[in-house]
Description:
7 helices
Amino acid sequence: MKVLGRLIGRRLLCKQLESWRNPLIPRRLIFSSSSITSYLENPPSSSPFTSFNSSSLPKWSHFLGQRRTMFIQTQSTPNPASLMFYPGKPVMEVGSADFPNARSAMNSPLAKSLYGIDGITRVFFGSDFVTVTKSDDASWDFIKPEIFAAIMDFYSSGKPLFLDSNATAAMDTAIHEDDSETVAMIKELLETRIRPAVQDDGGDIEYRGFDLETGIVKLKMQGACSGCPSSSVTLKSGIENMLMHYVPEVKGVEQEFDPEDEDAALSGQMD
Length: 271
């Protein structure tokens, strides 16, 4: 019996040593960047949205540390150079914010982080989404994982959306006491009827003024609508027709450009 006991004990010990020596048995689950690529290219759901779920990552990984639970969806826009990213959390509590260049993004940690990615040319914040616009030579396949990481890092950091609390969304359509009845009607239509439809496409409009003598309403396109090939059609066929229908004093709508937008428009015409 003693001999049999020793044989059994040696057998168990050999199995334990063999399992520790065997390099094929994983001792730790290592996260691989290729798992992100395969997940993004083949999302599990049949939704028209492309999604990234950080909960699918291992809870502990060699490179990432503790898992940050977040579900990010992306949606295409009429502008092929822009994508909408839905973090599943509120972005702007009121209004919207447009960052046409890196200089304008210095007051927002999230916008500044996104501009740190090569190929990003514009960032826009909506109520529950972030619109990112890329350059023509940049590929979504390469920059989308970096955008996902930047958004997750921001929400896990606890930083405010704006460093300066006074630098919030411009309330361009707020009705003031000195506004005429015509201007008040234009602002109300822009805020209640036109702006929601434009924001569904990842952009926004900014009211720049109304010329009573010419009847021209001046607007600025933001986000995905800025530089979009179909923005002129939206401006004339959609916005202009609606304003002229409900406000007889309106005779037309013109788009205003910032210097950066004018340069982009000129380069697009030259191409």
